[in-house]
Amino acid sequence: MADIRAEIDRIDAALVQILAERAAYIDRAAAIKAVAALPARITPRVEQVVSNVRDHAQAHGLSPDLVEMLWRQLIDWSIAREETRLGPDSDREDMR
């Protein structure tokens, strides 16, 4: 059991590192959106990301519904992060 727990801890640390890397790209996207006067939430892109992760989940034997639920939370967090730089979407061009 200790070996399994150590591997889970290793994977958790790697996931946190990957989330930090993703957050850095979210910050870069926010900078580009600020210049282009785009909103944080661009619904067609959100749905594209969700579709992509559902496909990846299916390919790896995971529940697409569970992965979608997790990613929608991640996307909402990412949009909130962008809004700290951009302001609320109501202040920006409507791309929904």
TrEMBL record:
Its EC number is 5.4.99.5. PROSITE patterns: CHORISMATE_MUT_2 (PS51168). SUPFAM superfamilies: Chorismate mutase II. Keywords: Isomerase, Lyase, Pyruvate. One of its GO terms (molecular function) is carbon-oxygen lyase activity. One of its GO terms (biological process) is chorismate metabolic process. It is an enzyme of class 5 (isomerase). SMART domains: CM_2 (SM00830). Residues 1-86 form the Chorismate mutase domain. Signal peptide: none annotated. This is chorismate mutase. The lineage of its organism: Bacteria, Pseudomonadati, Pseudomonadota, Alphaproteobacteria, Rhodobacterales.
